[in-house]
Design goal:
- By secondary structure, the protein is mostly beta strands.
- It is built from no helices and 22 strands.
- The protein starts with a strand and ends with a strand.
- Strands 1-20-17-22-15-13-14 form a 7-stranded mixed β-sheet, with no helix packed on it.
- The protein is globular and about 45 Å long.
- Belongs to the pirin family.
- This is Pirin family protein.
- InterPro entries: Pirin, Pirin_N_dom, Quercetinase_C, RmlC-like_jellyroll, RmlC_Cupin_sf.
- It comes from Vogesella facilis.
- It holds the Pfam family Pirin.
Length: about 230
């Protein structure tokens, strides 16, 4: 079964300095039909004005992944980590028993755009942690995060895997889904045909009870998407 969520049906927020689109219920946006999917709880597409950002605030018991699409994030947290996260890089912050952090647009002139993703951990508590990596733009599926850090991926505290999907125009591949698992596909750029459905930037698909399915770039530019393999 494939359930499509179109980009223009997502929730939205406008704070002036921040424009955000919410794939699932978040903050003042509440939609009982979209509370999350398996352990995936949040995908926010955030655009932040130069020098603006999120003041110091706290999280706990959540695996928080940021993926920068444009610009750079200046990150600081209570573990002592201070980093700049640039376009193309992924960050995984394990909140554990509690962490404080701030995120700002690192530029004085360029807009920041990034995806913020929350995944519930398998267990509560634990020591907060921070990881960051650029996985490049290798064609096909690249494992970005996994429970065991396989293939140099970031290690998350949940039985879930996040892949980056890159396909040239006309290219395709098949993804095999293990019994009892499900997938969530979020398109970042380009046009993706998923079985009999076509989805574009900001669109997403929930895939359940589908042992294997084809992913094909049907656009004229490279296709970039995120694929979540979930329990």
């Amino acid at each position: 079964m494939i359930d499509i969520r179109r980009a223009d049906s997502r929730g939205q927020a406008d704070f002036g300095w921040l424009q955000s689109r919410h794939s699932f219920s978040f903050a003042s946006y509440y939609d009982p039909a979209h509370m999350g999917f398996s352990d995936l709880r949040v995908i926010n597409d955030d655009r932040v004005l130069p020098r603006a950002g999120f003041d110091t605030h706290g999280h706990r018991d959540m695996e928080i992944i940021s993926y920068v699409l444009q610009g750079a994030i200046r990150h600081r947290d209570s573990t002592g980590t201070e980093e700049v996260l640039r376009a193309g890089e992924f960050q995984l912050m394990s909140a554990g028993r509690g962490i404080l952090h701030s995120e700002y647009n690192a530029s004085d002139s360029e807009e920041l755009r990034f995806l913020q993703i929350w995944i519930e951990p398998a267990e509560r508590g634990g020591t907060p942690g921070y990881q960051q990596k650029d996985f490049g733009l290798a064609p096909g599926l690249t494992l970005v995060a996994s429970p065991d850090g396989a293939d140099g991926s970031l290690q998350m505290r949940q039985d879930a895997r996040l892949y980056q999907l890159i396909l040239a125009p006309g290219e395709s591949l098949e993804f095999s889904q293990q019994p009892g698992r499900c997938s969530y596909v979020h398109v970042v750029k380009g046009q993706l045909q998923l079985v009999d459905e076509q989805i574009g930037p900001g669109d997403a698909a929930k895939v359940t009870a589908q042992p294997a399915y084809a992913l094909r770039n049907v656009g004229r530019e490279p296709l970039q998407a995120l694929l979540f393999d979930l329990a």
